[in-house]
């Protein structure tokens, strides 16, 4: 094989390889959809510890990671079993922290139904409200909690969502299931006043602004992809249609 043939073969090979977009190392979004200019990090006066399942962390829109970028003092941990995780156990065992897990259930404190005085009784002002957010599908979140009894035994909190999720590029298992980012926004809205966080400034809505920007961008990409593939999101389906037209 001569040099010219080798270079031609190499060029053809490279064309078949997936091209990865450059990413922003702060928000880990593709440079074209970097959210750093939209998200001025703010302190919600609640420590959020976002425990993200590896499958969730690898997705195009990982809402737990997006929330982490927006929140000062938050912690982002990737994994599925946290029973021996040093950071998690250090937070739980720190007497300055009052730890909760965001998870629905009969034993969970439903923040929506609690008045301000009751919230102040539960969430001590002289301790740091630390909320562990299990970030994954419902099935994965269940398993993560099962594998982590150090988390499962903590008091749990939940809420009744006011609106349906705006995660329009992913189907939710139930109408009132929210993404991790939307759930964190709700927690800030429901607990912020007990922490001395000024909700009237609407700084917390930075989370929703970033979320909408990413979702809208993905919706545009989906529409463009469908246009390029005869209305299909499955390239194999598009190729089958093309072959049928050619053979008819």
- N-to-C terminal Cα separation, in Å? 41 Å
Uncertain runs are: none
Major β-sheet strand ordering: 2-1-5-3-6-4
Query: Compute the gyration radius: what is it?
Result: 22 Å
- Count of discrete domains: 2
What would you say about this model in short?
The mean pLDDT is 86.
Describe the protein's architecture and organization.
With 248 residues, this protein is an alpha/beta fold. The chain has 2 domains: 40-202, no CATH class; 215-248, no CATH class. The protein has helices at residues 3-16, 54-57, 63-70, 86-93, 116-122, 138-147, 149-152, 180-195, 206-228, 235-247; strands at residues 47-52, 75-78, 97-102, 109-110, 128-135, 156-158. A 6-stranded parallel sheet has the order 2-1-5-3-6-4. It is elongated and about 80 Å long. The two termini are 41 Å apart.
Summarize the SSE layout with pairings.
Elements lengths: L2 H14 L30 E6 L1 H4 L5 H8 L4 E4 L7 H8 L3 E6 L6 E2 L5 H7 L5 E8 L2 H10 L1 H4 L3 E3 L21 H16 L10 H23 L6 H13 L1
Parallel strand pairs: 1-2, 1-5, 3-5, 3-6, 4-6
Helix pairs in contact: 3-8, 3-9
Brief descriptors of the model:
single chain; 248 residues; alpha/beta; six-stranded parallel sheet; 10 helices; 12% strand
């Amino acid at each position: 094989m001569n040099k010219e043939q080798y270079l031609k073969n190499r060029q053809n090979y490279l064309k078949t390889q997936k091209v990865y977009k450059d990413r922003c190392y702060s928000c880990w979004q593709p440079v074209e959809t970097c959210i750093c200019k939209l998200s001025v990090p703010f302190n919600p006066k609640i420590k959020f510890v976002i425990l993200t399942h590896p499958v969730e962390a690898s997705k195009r829109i990982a809402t737990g990671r997006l929330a982490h970028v927006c929140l000062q003092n938050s912690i982002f941990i990737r994994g599925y079993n946290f029973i021996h995780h040093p950071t998690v156990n250090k937070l739980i065992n720190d007497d300055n922290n009052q730890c909760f897990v965001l998870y629905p259930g009969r034993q969970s404190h439903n923040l929506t139904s609690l008045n301000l005085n009751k919230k102040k009784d539960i969430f001590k002002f002289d301790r740091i409200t630390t909320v562990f957010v299990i970030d994954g599908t419902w099935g994965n979140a269940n398993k993560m909690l099962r594998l982590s009894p150090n988390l499962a035994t903590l008091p749990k909190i939940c809420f009744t969502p006011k609106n349906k999720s705006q995660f329009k590029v992913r189907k939710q298992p139930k109408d009132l299931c929210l993404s991790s980012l939307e759930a964190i926004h709700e927690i800030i809205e429901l607990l912020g006043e007990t922490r001395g966080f000024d909700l009237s400034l609407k700084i917390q809505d930075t989370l929703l602004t970033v979320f909408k920007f990413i979702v809208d961008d993905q919706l545009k990409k989906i529409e463009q992809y469908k246009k390029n593939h005869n209305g299909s999101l499955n390239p194999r389906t598009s190729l089958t249609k093309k072959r049928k037209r050619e053979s008819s």
